[in-house]
Amino acid sequence: MLRLPTFDFQPARSVEHAVALLAVHGNDALPVAGGTDLYANMKLGLFAPRLVVGLRSLTELRRISFDSQHGLRIGALCSLDAVARDSAVMAHYPALARAAAMVGTPEIRNMGTIGGNLCLETRCNYYNQSAEWRKAMGHCLKRDGDICRVAVHSPTCKAINASDTAPVMLAYDARIALVGPNGERSIAVRDFYQNDGAHANVKRADEILTEIVLPVPTSGTRSTYRKLRLRNAFDFPLVGVAVAVATDADGICTQARVVLNAVGSAPLEIVAAESLLLGTHLRGESTADAAEEVFKAGKPLENANAGLLYRKRMLRVLAQRALEDVVRPLH
Amino acid sequence: MGKNGAAPSQAHVVGASLPRIDGYAKVTGAAIFADDIALPRMLFGKLLRSPHAHARILSIDYERALRHPGVVAVAVGGDLPARYGILPSAQDETVFAIDKVRYVGEPVAGIVAEDELAAQQAAALIEVRYETLPSVMSIDEALLEVDGSGEKIHPESRKANNVHKEVHLTFGDLDAGFAAAERIFDDEYFFEGNTHAALEEHSAIASFGADGKLTLWSSTQTPHYLHRVAASVLDLPASRIRIIAPPVGGGFGGKTEPVAHELAAAHFSRKTGRPVKFTLSREEVFYTHRGRHPVRIHLQTGIRSDGSIAACRLQTWLDGGGYGSYGVATTYYTGALLPVTYKMGAYAFDGCRVYTNKPPCGPKRGHGTTQPRYAFESQLDEIANALGLDAGAYRAAIAIDPYSRTINHLRVTSCGMREALSAVAERTDYSEKHGKLAPGRGIGLAASAYLCGAGLPIYWNPMPHSGAIVKVDRGGGVTVFCGTSDCGQGSQNMLAVIVAETLGIDILDVSVCAGDTDLTPVDLGSYSSRVTFMAGNAARSAALDVRERIAAAAGAELNIAPDRCVFERGRVFDRDEPERALSFVDAARAAEASFGTLAGVGSYTPPEDLHGDFKGSGVGPSPAYSYSACVAEVEVDFETGEIRVERIVLAHDCGRALNPAIVEGQIEGSAYMGMGEALMEESAFRNDLHRIPNLLDYKTPTILDTPRIEAIVIETEEREGPYGAKEAGEGPLNPVIPAIANAVADAIGARIYATPITPERVLQALDGTTGKLRLRAPVATRTA
Ligand SMILES: Cc1cc2nc3c(=O)[nH]c(=O)nc-3n(C[C@H](O)[C@H](O)[C@H](O)COP(=O)(O)OP(=O)(O)OC[C@H]3O[C@@H](n4cnc5c(N)ncnc54)[C@H](O)[C@@H]3O)c2cc1C
Ligand code: SF4
User: Fold this and answer.
1) Pick from A125, A119, A131, A116: which is nearest to A48 by CA?
2) Least CB-CB distance to B760: which of A233, A235, A310?
3) What is the pLDDT of residues B357-366, one digit of tens each?
4) Does residue A126 line the site of ligand 2, with CB under 6 A?
5) Is there a contact between B479 and B782 (Cβ–Cβ < 8 Å)?
6) Whose CA is nearest to atom 2 of ligand 2?
7) Which of B693, B704, B760 sits opposite A133 (nearest CB)?
8) Which three-class secondary structure state does DSSP give residue B588?
9) Which strand (E) or helix (H) includes residue A29?
10) Residue A125 C-alpha from the chain's centroid
11) What are phi and psi of B377, to 5 degrees?
C-alpha cells in the first residue's frame, strides 16, 4: 500500500504552543486536525512536511455554544458529526447541519473537523493523484509544473473548493478566528478565500483557525444546502448551492445569500441572483430568474467526475430546487 | 455443537441455511489474508511502472536506487526473461517489460528493501529512458492499419493492424433465416469496460526454505495455474514449489491469472534468501486490471411473425488492452452463450479482439457473456414492445427447453428459466406496470444463462478438473483436502457441506484444507463458476469412497449388508431397523481397524458430449447451465438525469441450493455489482492514463444507493451436479444490467445504447441529442 513519508509529530499543548511550533518551522511544518485530508495528500506526495503539529489535543477547541445574542461559536476541532448533530445548529443553522452531514462517509465525519473542512485543500483530478500518476501525466501549476492542464492558458490554478460547509458559512455571514504569533484576528469567511487554487485562502502558514462564529440569523431566515453527487455518500460535490433568505412580515425578501461551491477555487457568491430576490415575494418568477443568474455565473471546468456541461446545467436545477426548498414553507 | 460425534441438529446439511464455517473469522477480522502474513526477516517489494502507454525502453539505470538506504536488490526484464500467459496461445508477458512497454502502469523493474517506504522511494530513483511511440487507445484506432510513424503493439503479430483474435462461426442457414424473418432488428451497443473492485488488494509473499523449496502465498483464485507459471518462469521443478492461497478478499475474476508481483516476490526471495512480500496499492490494482473488456456490439435479429427468432447475427469488438490475458476465451465467450437462453433458427457470431495501450482486460464475473447479454436483452425488450408482447411471457415462449441442444450444439440439461421469469414477473406485477407507470418511473425485465464451469481446461490435458481427498480421523474428525481457493464465495463451506451430508455428520466436525499445492489435489481454480459443480462432485465422490469402507465395517458390526447402512445425525444405522446403530466415531474406528488408515479420493472430469466439433467449440460448453431472471424498478429525475433504483428482484436457478443463505448472498451481491456496472462504473482514460485509478473517483454504489434486493432461489434438480447443485457465483449478475437498462428505457421513453447509464446520458437521451448509437463503421479486419 501507499506509505506516508516520514515526519515528526508533535501534539500541541495549547494554541500558543501550536502557533509557536509553526512559526519556528515555517514551511517545513503543517498543522493537522482530523487528518482525513492532509494524510491522504501526504500519501500522494503532495505535501511532505518535516513536522506535523497535532491539533486534536486542543480539547478547548471542541466546544459548540449558542446564545441568542452572539450567535453560534464552533470550536475548529469539532468533528463534522458533532456539528451535524448539534441541536442549536439543527435549530438555527439547518443548512450547516445538512452540509456537514453530507460530507464523505460516517468515518470521515467522525475524524474530520469543521476547521479542517474550511481549510480543505482545493481539489482537481489532475492533482489528487499519486506521484507516479502525476509524473506520467505531466506536472501542473499547482505542484511541480508550469501549466494548468485544465485551463491551459490560465496563469493560475483552477482547482476546486470542494468543502461542503464553506458556502454555507458564507451564506450565514460567518466569521473565523485565526491565531498567529501576533495574536488573534477575526475575518469574514467571505474574505478568507481567494480564487487561486494554489493559494486558496489567506491563512498564513503560522496561523491556526480556532473558532467559527455565526451571527444570529435574522428572524424569518430560511436556509438550505443542495449538493450534486454521483452517489449518496463517499462523494465530493460536483456542484453545490447554499441559500439563505430572510423575509419580513409581509413576506418580502429582505436578505438573500446564494453561494456556490465546487465551481471555482473559492466559494462563489452570486450577488446578481441575490439582488433579483431582494424586495420580491420570492415567487416563481424571481426564483427562476435568480437560478438563471446562478447558471450564468458558475463556470465549472473539466476537472471533476462529471462533464463540465452537465455540471453547469445542474447549477440552474440545483439553485432552483434550493430556492424552492426555502420558499415553499412561505407560501 | 461441534463436539466430535455430537448429533447434528438436523438430518441434512444440504438445503439448510447454516452459518458459514469461515463466517465468524471473516466478520471478526480473525481470518488471515495474504497481506496479514509476516515472516521473520521479510523484505518488502515495489514495482516501478511505466509512465508511457507505448514506448521502447532504451536503458535502465538503477545504480542510485541500489544505493538508497535499505534497498537490498533490484531486478529488470532481462533477469526474468521467460514469457508467460494464462492461455497457451498467448504467452506474451514477462514479469518486467523487455524492450517495450504497452500500457501506463506496466511493471518495468522491481525493487526490494527493508521496508515498504524505502522500496517506494528507491523505485523513484530508477532511471528509465524511453522512446515513446504513438499510442492506440480505442477499438477504432486499433483497427486502423499502422502507419509509418507507429508500430504495432505486438510487432511480431501477423495481422496488419492491432487485431489480436478473430472468430467467425455460423450455425444453421443464416440467409434463409433472415429471409424467413418478418422483421429484422438491427442495433449497435457499447458496453464500457470496468474493473472488479475487490476489497483486498493483491498480495504475495514468497519464501525459499533452507531445503531450496519455494513457498508462495498469494491472494489468487487459481493456485494451480500459478504453480505452473511459477515453475516455468522461475525455471524450477514444480515439485519444489508450494503455492498456498489464503482466504482471498474478493476476486471476481481479477485474481485468476499469474501476474508480475507474484513472480517477482519469488524471484527476489530466491535472490536474497529472505522472505519477500509485495502488496499492491489500489492504483496498482487498477493497472493490473484483467477486468471487463469494453465491447462494441452489433446485433441483428430476425423475427418471424409469431415472434420466434429466425436468425441472429452478433458481431463483437473487444478492447483487450496491452496483452492477451484470457482474451481469446473472452472473445469466444462473447458469442458462445447467447444461444443458451433462447431457441434460434440460425446464428452467426463474429468476434474480434484488439490490442490497445491500456491495462490488459480479462475475465470479470460473467466473463465475456455480460456485454452481449446486455445488448441482446435490451433488443429483446424493444422486440417485445414492437410486437406488443409482454416481455416476460415473450421470453418464456422462445426459451430454450430443458434437456436439449442449442443452435451452437451446446448440451443443455436442467433449465429453470421459465420458472425464474414467472417468479420475478409475478413478484413485481411486471405486466401490470410495464409501460403504464407515471413518467419518470420504469420497470424492466431481463433473463440470462451461465456456465457451471468451463467444460475444458485452460491448457489441454486429459486429467480431472478437480480432485479431493477425505480423511477420517479415529476421533471422528473429517478433513477434506481440495485445491480450491475461497475468494469469499463460500467454497470452503461448500466442501464441508457436501462431505458432512455424505457422511451424515455435523458440519463443524469437518475441517477444510484448501488451496495448498503441497497438501491438496489439483482443482483448476475459482473461475467460470466451476467450484461447486466440479470440486463439489470430487469431494462427494471422495466422501463416498471412504464411506464405502465405513459402511462395510459398520455393516459387519451390526450384522447387516453394508448397503443398508444409513449415515445421518452422526450415526450409522440400519435403514430397516434404525435402532441398530453405531455412532459415526465407532463406525470409523471399526473401519480403521479393518482397513487401515481411512481416506477416500475422488475426482471430477466433465463428460465429453457437451459440445459440437468445430474450431472454437471448446469455449462455452459446460456440464450444466444456470438460469436467471431479473426485474428492476427505477425512478428517473428528468431535470438532473439521476436514476434511483428502487427495487431489484432477482431469481436464480442454481440447481439445488446447498446452502440457501449463501445462494441468496451471491444473488444480492450480483444485484449490487450489476447495478454499479449499469449506472456508474467505467474504466475511463485521459491522455493515455487511467483517469481515476482510485475508489473515491471510480464510482461503485454505496449502501445508500442500493435498493431493496429480493433474492428468489429457483431450485431445479441437476442430475450431474453434487446433490443436484449448479452454480450461483456469476450467473445472477448478467440479467441485472439489461433489466436496469430496460427499466430506464421504460421510465424515459428513450433507449440509451451504452453503459454506464449516467445522468449525463439520460439528459442527452431526453434532449433527443442521442438517438440510436451509430458508431463509425469499423474498418474491415484482415490478416496480412
Ligand atoms: C474519502 C473522503 C471523502 C471526503 N468527502 C468529502 C466531502 O464530501 N465533502 C467535503 O467537504 N470534504 C470531504 N472530504 C475531505 C475531508 O475529509 C473533510 O473536508 C474534513 O472535514 C477535513 O477535516 P480534517 O480535520 O480531517 O482536516 P485535516 O486533514 O486535518 O486538515 C486539512 C487541511 O487543513 C489544515 N487544517 C486543519 N485544521 C486546521 C486548523 N484548525 N487551523 C489551521 N489549519 C488547519 C491542515 O493543515 C490541512 O492542510 C473527504 C475526504 C475523504 C478522504
Ligand atoms: S486546476 Fe490546473 S493547475 Fe490546478 S491542479 Fe488542476 S491542472 Fe493543476
Assistant:
1) A131
2) A310
3) 999 999 999 9
4) yes
5) no
6) A148
7) B693
8) helix
9) strand A29-32
10) 18
11) -70, -25
Q: Average pLDDT in the B571-600 region?
A: 98
pLDDT tens, position by position, B338-347: 999 999 999 9
Using a CB–CB cutoff of 8 Å, tell me whether B52 touches chain A.
yes
B592 pLDDT tier (thresholds 50, 70, 90)? very high
What is the mean pLDDT of the segment spanning B646-662?
A: 98
- 3-state SS, residue B482: strand
At B665, list the grid cell: 448472498
Asked if omega into B756 is within 30° of 0 (cis), the reply is: yes
**How long is chain A?**
331
Name the pLDDT band for A157 (thresholds 50, 70, 90): very high
- Where is B663: in which H helix or E strand? helix B660-679
Q: What is the mean pLDDT of residues B181-192?
A: 98
- At A331 the pLDDT is 59
**Measured distance CA(A32)–CA(B564) in Å, rounded:** 74
Mean pLDDT (chain A) is 96
Strand runs labelled E in A122-249: 175-180, 183-188, 208-214, 221-228, 239-247
Q: From the CA of A330, how many Å to the nearest CA of chain B?
A: 24
Q: pLDDT tens digit string along A260-276?
A: 999 999 999 999 999 99
Atom of ligand 2 nearest to the CA of A142: 3
Complex ipTM > 0.95: yes
Q: Residues with Cβ < 8 Å from B337, sequence gap 6 or more?
A: B369, B373, B449, B450, B451, B620
Q: What's the average model confidence in pLDDT over A28-49?
A: 97
Question: How many Cα neighbours within 13 Å face the side chain of B95?
Answer: 26
Mean pLDDT of chain B: 95
Cα-based angle B580, B583, B588 (whole degrees, multiple of 5): 115
Question: Which structural domains are found in chain B, ordered by start?
Answer: 23-31+464-604 (3.30.365.10), 41-133+199-250+255-288 (3.90.1170.50), 369-456+620-777 (3.30.365.10)
Q: How far apart are CA A135 and CA A138, in angstroms?
A: 5
Strands (E), A79-228: 175-180, 183-188, 208-214, 221-228
Give the pairing type, strands B411-412 and B404-405. antiparallel
Query: What residues of A are in contact with residue B639 (Cβ under 8 Å)?
Result: 317
Residue for cell digits 449499469?
B678
Give the three-class secondary structure for B57. Answer: strand
Ligand 2 lined by A244 (C-beta under 6 Å): no
Which of A137, A234, A313 lies at the smallest CB-CB distance from B696?
A234
- Chain A: closest CA distance from residue B280 (Å): 6
pTM of the model as a whole: 0.97
Pairing, β A29-32 against β B71-76 = unpaired
Q: Do A130 and B283 touch (CB under 8 A)?
A: yes
The C-alpha of B393 sits at a distance from chain A's nearest C-alpha, in angstroms, of 35
A230 and B CB contact within 8 Å: yes
Query: What burial class does residue A157 get, using C-beta atoms within 10 Å of its C-beta: 0-12 exposed, 13-18 middle, 19+ buried?
Result: buried
| Separation CA B287–CA A136 (nearest Å) | 13
Average pLDDT over every residue of B441-466: 96
Q: Please give the single-letter amino acid code of residue B663.
A: V
Query: Helix H segments across B47-115?
Result: 63-67
Domains of chain A: residue spans and CATH: 8-56 (3.30.43.10), 59-119+160-214 (3.30.465.10), 221-330 (3.30.390.50)
